[in-house]
Fold:
Amino acid sequence: MGTEHIVRSFAQELQRLSNLIAQMGGVAEAQVEAAVKAVARRDVGLATQVMQADARLDAYERDIDAEAVRLLALRQPMAQDLREIVSSLKIAADLERIGDYAANIAKRSLALAQLPVARPAVAIPRMGRLVESIMKDVLDAYTERDVQKAIAAWERDEELDDLYTSLFREGLTYMMEDPRNITPCTHLLFMAKNMERIGDHATNIAETIHYLVVGTPLALNRPKSDGSSFAVVSPLAAGLPGALAEALGVDEASNDAM
Amino acid sequence: MGTEHIVRSFAQELQRLSNLIAQMGGVAEAQVEAAVKAVARRDVGLATQVMQADARLDAYERDIDAEAVRLLALRQPMAQDLREIVSSLKIAADLERIGDYAANIAKRSLALAQLPVARPAVAIPRMGRLVESIMKDVLDAYTERDVQKAIAAWERDEELDDLYTSLFREGLTYMMEDPRNITPCTHLLFMAKNMERIGDHATNIAETIHYLVVGTPLALNRPKSDGSSFAVVSPLAAGLPGALAEALGVDEASNDAM
Structure:
């Protein structure tokens, strides 16, 4: 604006950018929490709210991108200041993706709400609590520029991967027990996958905090433990009753669970 | 390096960054193609290669990030030059994610290769051809700085979403027909989802090209048509034989397909 009367210092502008990220983080956190609640309570109204509110995160990302590019052009920053701005671009992109996953969980909860309650649904709030606490720690670590806290949160993502892998195998088993479980369990598996991806984006943010504060990439190497992609569960291994297995033509040859 | 003898012009440095993106794009494209081939041919060796080669894309992203930050600090660019550098950060992040999805498709193909051939597997090469052609167009649009080509590719993502939604419903139906289809079809659904996500990242790149060339965000608004998240298929709607449906305790009350 040509008529801008307030002249801010560069430090104030960086602080403002950082506050925008913190606010966007708060909205993303609330979206994840509400999406998980919508699944647990089969709350269609809440799910609809989450889907609508996703546009707020898109708007935050656009604002943060525009502000970051403006500061790069105007202030020609170096060192830590430059890292602040580059980090804000990266973190906003991760938070926007987290919002997309929350909206997709809400969307799938609408399909689930039409169906009988599926047992593995209890695992969603369990994954939800873990992912919410990882997100909270990562966002606190950002506000406090606390690398140790960021690394601690980054390490907890492994629990989430393990929870996801066991839920994946469990879901396959329920589907084999009763075909009425197939649609709800498939949506639950995708919801769990979304939660696992939210965790991955939270670890991306933790890595960005390390780069921001220390100036170098995070050198730790945690092997990615997505066991679910290898999971094979056969109808017999799933303990399908003998007569039913016979009716379905299941034979020993297909029993190659790993 | 203090002993650097070659002094490059800024224009040369930007061209080098742009070439790095083009190379990374080529590797990502090859990874997607190889992953789809590994599924279609049940080729375990090729799948393993794809999983191993993913590290190359991670290395490209690190190099591009480092080079972009170096140029921001050293050259303090403005306008189009600044957009070139910010765009390279964004595109590298999208290509790295595309690589992750290709590696996950390859990983799941290892589980699939142990199982009987599942019918919807033919849909994977079909989605593969579409996503490969969208990626090719987007990468050409980047090299040629061709906004119209980028928008045309961006619009074709809708076909991919439609293909994914129909594959999702088809997969649910096969699972209901025979529990032996449950594990392979679940992996196929996740592969199809990965392909749909690769398409989303390709459209992100198309949007970045618009920003890079025109200087403003892409104002078009294509409604996101992920119908699969709402999909409900009941065992009866899936045409489960009457006697079997009875044995499984399926009744009309659960027949709420939409």
Summary: Chain A has one domain: 10-225. Chain A touches chain B through 56 residues (CB under 8 Å). Chain A has a mean pLDDT of 86. The radius of gyration of chain A is 22 Å.
